[in-house]
Amino acid sequence: MERNERDAQILQLFEQRSEEAISAAALQYGGLCRQIAMNILGNAEDAEECVNDTWLAVWNRIPPERPRSLTAYICRIARNLSMDRLDYLRAGKRDTAVTSSLEALMELHQDIGLTDLQLEAVSEDVCRNAVNGFLSGLPREMRRVFVRRYWFGDSLAQLSERTGFTESKLKSMLHRMRKGLRQRLGEEGVAI
């Protein structure tokens, strides 16, 4: 069965308020959500808590929401919950290892140069369109590297294993892509 068909069936289960919806979503996307949470948090217990919270959040949001891409929707929720958990852990001065995901986000933040206030002030649509336009102009493999690093939080070692590129090559590619994204944001009128 194709992913779109499976997603449509899972969405239908959520809309019918069937308890099978959570089981079906967990079966289909549980591994991906765990990977995202682990890359961000680096702790299996915290990651599992975020994954469980993801299913509750999806249950509470569908309906009324009906996402176009269930994969992206669920991954975004898992990622946001994991980032919130990381903020909580760091704010409480708990001893948490700095993860490669946090380092990746810092790389992106430093090279793009937007402050948190600027990010909030910029229209979500302008940023989304600029980033999507930038990514669509990249070769498939470079786009995959960018998304795996900055969305899924893969470490350089994980990316190297996935792509066959050396970590040095990946660092160079990512640096050039961040510079390109910064330029694209400037062209789209995002003040940097």
Write the layout of secondary structure elements.
Layout: H1 3-15, H2 20-41, H3 44-61, H4 70-91, H5 100-112, H6 116-121, H7 124-136, H8 140-150, H9 156-163, H10 167-187
Describe the overall structure.
- It is a single chain.
- The protein is mainly α.
- It has ten helices and no strands.
- The protein has helices at residues 3-15, 20-41, 44-61, 70-91, 100-112, 116-121, 124-136, 140-150, 156-163, 167-187.
- Helix 1 (3-15) packs across helix 2 (20-41), helix 2 packs across helix 4 and helix 5 packs across helix 10 (167-187).
- Residues 94-102 and 116-122 have low confidence and may be disordered.
**Given the helix and strand composition, which structural class is it?**
mainly alpha
Largest sheet: none
Q: What is the end-to-end distance?
A: 45 Å
Spell out the helices and strands N to C. Answer: HHHHHHHHHH
Rg, rounded, reads: 18 Å
Report low-confidence residues grouped into runs of 5 or more.
94-102, 116-122
Q: Strand portion, in percent?
A: under 5%
Average pLDDT works out at 82
How many strand elements?
0
**How would you sum up the global shape?**
globular
Helix content: over 70%
Q: What's the helix count? A: 10
